[in-house]
Every structure is written in C-alpha cells, then in structure tokens.
Specification:
The complex is a heterodimer. Chain A is elongated, with a radius of gyration of 18 Å. The longest helix of chain A has about 40 residues, at about 150-190. Chain A has one domain (about 5-220). The two termini of chain A are about 20 Å apart. The model of chain A has no long low-confidence stretch (mean pLDDT about 85). Chain A is an all-alpha fold. Chain A has helices at about 5-25, 30-40, 45-70, 80-100, 115-125, 130-140, 150-190, 190-195, 200-220. By secondary structure, chain B is mostly beta strands. Chain B has a single domain, classed as YVTN repeat-like/Quinoprotein amine dehydrogenase (Methylamine Dehydrogenase, Chain H). Helix content of chain B is about 5%, strand content about 40%. In chain B, strands 3-2-1-30 form a 4-stranded antiparallel β-sheet, with no helix packed on it. Chain B has a 4-stranded antiparallel β-sheet with strand order 4-5-6-7. In chain B, strands 8-9-10-11 form a 4-stranded antiparallel β-sheet, covered by helices on one side. The relative contact order of chain B is 0.14. The model of chain B has no long low-confidence stretch (mean pLDDT about 95). Classes of the chains: A mainly alpha, B mainly beta. The interface of A and B includes residues 27, 31, 39, 101 and 106 of A.
Chain lengths: ~220, ~475
Amino acid sequence: MDVSNLSEAALWGAVLLSGIYHGVNPGMGWPLAVSAALMERRGLALLQAFGLLAGGHFLAMLAILLPFSLMIFLVQWELQIRVAAGVTVIAMGLYLLINRRHPRILARVHPARLALWSFLAAMAHGAGLMLVPIFLGLCAIDPGDTGHLAAQSLMSGNLSTALWVALLHTGAMTLAGGAVALGVYLWLGLKFLSRSWFNLDLVWALSLVLVGAFGITSALGDT
Amino acid sequence: MNLRPDPTFHASPKLAMQAPVENYAFTVMLSPDGAQSDGIAVIDVNPSSKTYGEIVHQVIVPYKGDEFHHFGWNACSSSLSPLSGHAFLERRYLIVPGIRSSRIYIIDVKEPLKAKIHKIIEPEEVFEKTGYSRPHTIHCGPEGIYVSTLGGGGEDGTDGPPGIFIMDCESFEIIGRYEMDRGKQDKHYDFWWNLPQDYMVSSEWGLPPQFEGGIVPEDLLSNKYGHSIHFWDLRARKNIQTMDFGENYQMALEIRPAHDPTKSYGFCGVVVDTSNLQGAIFTWWRDDDGTWQSKKTITIDPRPEEAENLPELLKGFGAVPPLVTDIDLSLDDRFLYVACWGLGEMHQYDVTDPMNPKLVGKVELGGIARGTKHPNGQDFAYGPQMVEISRDGKRVYWTNSLYSSWDDQFYPQDSGGQMVMANVGEDGGLTLDEGFFINFPEGYRSHQIRLEGGDCSTDSFCYPSA
C-alpha cells in the first residue's frame, strides 16, 4: 500500500467521521425525529422524520460539492481552487465564531417541512463546506496522472466522487443521528435531550477553520 | 451563553413538574397614582427559609407612571425547540413593560437578591419600530421574544390596530411587527401558542380609551369591548380564523392552551356576559378538518346584592358579577384555576375532560360587598386576581389588583397590595396557607407573579409528556 492509498483511505474516513459528527449534533436535527415520534405516538414517525432530514442534508451536501466538482476540471487552476476553497471554509468558520447568533430563517420553517429545514440548517451552518477540502483532496488523488485524461472523463469522475462523498457522509450522519434519536425515544427518555445537548457552536466553528487549513496545506503539499 | 442548556429548560411539561421547586417569586409592585416608581418585588417562597413569605429585595425603576401589569422571561423551555433551538440561552432576564408609558425594562434576576435593571427600552423606540404602544404579554418563542400590545399608534393608541412585535432574545433590540395578515383582528390582549403544531391564539380586551381612565360603562353595556379570539398560523404570521363568542361575551382575556403539545385545545376566560352578568369560560379546540371550534363550558353566576352595598358602577344591577379576570392551567392540564375578582372567589376546576369541567375546589377571599377575611384573620383588599401555579401544581399564588383605575371603580373603599398562597390537595381541593400573606409596601398594589425557574403561564413545551 503506497502513501496515496493511505491518504485516500484517511480522506474517506474523514467523510465518515464528519457524517457521524453531523449526525450526533442536535443542531442537524435528531431532536426533530424524537419530537415527531412522540407527537405522533409511533416509532415509525421517527424513521420517516429522519428520512426527510437525511434527504435535506444530502441535497445540501450536493449543493455545495457539485459546483466544486464542475470547477475542478480546470486542471491548471487546481491549486488555486483548492486554496480558495480552504480560505472560504476558514472564512465561514471565522464568521460563525464572531457571529454567534442563530439563523432566524430556521424559525420561519413550518415544523412539518423537515427536509427543507434540514437543507437550510446544513447550509446556514456550513455543513457542506466542511466536506469541500476533503472532497477536493479525494479528487486530486483519484485521477492519477491528470494531465493525460480528457476533461470530460475527469469531470464525470469528480461528479461520481461528489455523489459518493455526499452519500457516504449522509449515510453516516443518518446512522449516527438516528441511533441517538432512537436511543432517546426508546430508552434514554427526554431528560437526555437537555442533558446531552452541548453547546457545539464554538467547536463547530473551529472544525471549519481546521478543515479549511487542512485543505490549504494539503493542496500546497500535493504540488 | 451556556455550554449546557439552562437547567430550568424542560423538554416536556412532565419534566418541568418533576424539577426542583421555586425558591423565589417575582411580583409586580404598582403605584396606582404614579406617586412612586413601579418595581418588581422579589419574594422568598422557600418554606425552610427564615425570610419565607417576605419581600427580600425590590427593583424600583427610575421613572414614574409606567404602570406595570404583565411580564415574562427572556427565555423558557421553548428554547429546547428542535427547530429553532436556542438551548444555550440563560433564563435570566425579566421583560417588564409599562402599559401606560410603553417603556420596557429588562431586569437581570440571575441573583434574585441582587436583581437589577439591565436595559431600558424607551417608548419612542417601541413607537418608531412597531407603530404599536402599551406593551403587555411576553412570551419567548421561535423568532425571539414576542410582545403583545394593547394600543396602536398616536397619543391615545387608536391610530391603527394593536398587535404583536418581536424582540431579539439576546440583544433585546426591537425587530418589528409580527403580523403579515391580521384579518379581522383590531384589538389585542393575550396570546399563546402550540409550537410544534404551529398555531397561535390571541384575545381582545379593548382599546386604550376604553380602559386607561377606567372601565367605560356605556361601552360595556353596548358590548364594545373585545369578544373574539383569533387563530393564527404562527410561522406564516397569518390570522387563519377569527372566532366571535357573541357580542355579549365582553372581554375575552386570558388564553390558556393545553401545555402538552399533542393536544389541540385550550381555554379562554370571559370577564362578563352582559346579558346576565355571568362569568364564562370557553373551551376551544381544532376539529378533524382543521376548523377551530369553541363551546362555553363553565358559567359562574352573579350574586344578588342590595344596591346600597354596591359601588356606583353596579348599583343599577343589584348584583355582584363574578368578573373572571384571570385563569391559569396546571402543567398536567388537569386543573384550571379561575379568579372571580368581583365575587371574591378562586375556583379550581378539574378539566381532565376539557368539555366537562368539574368544580372541585373553591376559596372565598375578599370580594365586592363581602370582604371575606383570610383564615389568618387579616383583611384581603379587592378580590383574587392574577393567579400563578407552581410547576409541580401543588401551590397556587395570587394577588389582588386588577388595573389601577378599575380597582377604584369596583372597590372604592379598598386599598393595598397583597399576595397569598393556597395548597392543592392530592385530588383537587384548595386551602389557603395561613402562613403566607404578604402586604405590599405602603402605596403599592400587586399584579402578575412569575416564579423562579418558570411557572404555568410562561413556559411553552416542544415535546409531549408521554
């Protein structure tokens, strides 16, 4: 196993981990699934609710990743794009660090529109951006000798990577968040909700800064 | 901002009932003639404390003539909402509006014994940013702090309808009006909601000229006070249905939705039915096709009385109307408390079946032409009025003043602010506690009560008890 295989595995691992991280964060919606099951007095509502949350989250990931996967075929600009992406992610993290106020738009969403809520929550918190440096890292590894590949096949490769990243991330997010929601609903009880709800605002913002910095250093390291 | 949710935020009403009980109460101190500044009294309600049942601290504001009435918290259990979770706010500030001055005080009660003014919002800011005046009911909700107002613009508050405005829950900046489509709503009083079901209900008292100088008998007899309640799509900010109880049901005031968010019903108290002087409670609910319905489920009869014993206002009627001025629902949605300010009675109804309330407890205290003494032998001025129930449902506190100018019309001989407490029996029943009787400082009357850690008319819950 060579170095690039190892780092590829690490990047896919990061996709999984970020999914788990988003899943257990109450800000990404697992309390809504608990609430749905309790309001409707049936456990199945929990799964339906989480399905909608996952759908919204998946779309939010794609909404961020797809534009980057289309851009990256400008191979000669790869370094600049990766650095710019890293700077954007850091900027989002810094913005969230300074502006600690909650996005009021979320308060206007009807409680039944869970997919829309999940999409907006992920966008407002920069959840998709967190994946961008990881995704770009994967794109940089995948094609091998990029210089000889046709732009089209490169792009379709990147598109399928984006899809896989979003799918894997959302899958991990769903399993982790769903497990927490189910645990609270079936065993732990509502008291766990307020006990386990930690203020992740700071950690979340710092995560974005960290991932952005990783993106920049790995881009510079690859060249 | 906290790292963990405030320990007084509870996911469900049941968890709120199980939480530690209140140690302090905060009660409005009102100078009815504006001779002194209004304030908030901090009261020790911990029975094992040496100063139990005493006012242990007062926050007196710098201005005079504000007329404090209702007030509320900057944050409550609604902060645990899964949609707009603000779980790391602190329940720390009381939002106290002056309904005469339109000035709003933000009072920091983190340390109850050192409670102090944190910020003052001047009336001009309220007028300028909302076009409303005379702020009243406070609830913390999805978009911040919601404040209902009793007046519109202009000197006498009749330039445009009153409504609700929203304040930022951290900076206390006034954001602006709530309503996007108010429909027929042209008066305002109370409001409350069911957050997961996304509806709000609001009620009507009257416009400022109908109450500021005292009750206007001609307006009452010609049924010109409010008699409708309004149902709103909370997040769309639209009035979806106006329900008229009938014009004889004058002053539909307090709105008390069931606390359990799976339930789609609640209650509204009507001060007086002008056709027979009864007091009335309506139960409102949403039927299967989504339409709101209501039915009168409690009536309280007036008491015949010799004209010579009655105040000027009532001499012609030869009776004491019950005057249902406040109601409050316990967190388990089981007992509804009804203050009959005219009769001098506090009623306790079992509303387990909200369509068939049963009277299960009653206390007589004060009252027009009756003046029942407290069991400790002291006189109780006026009648039972603003009522607040402890979260565990075991203690019911109340005060005695309705509204400065109205007190003087219905009880021209009485004076003084008082607060008492009654204990609730296991299966209902209400007994005044002889050891809890607070006389307010000279010249002050009392009004709404808030309990440390939340009470039965502040917190909105986002998860069911089951």
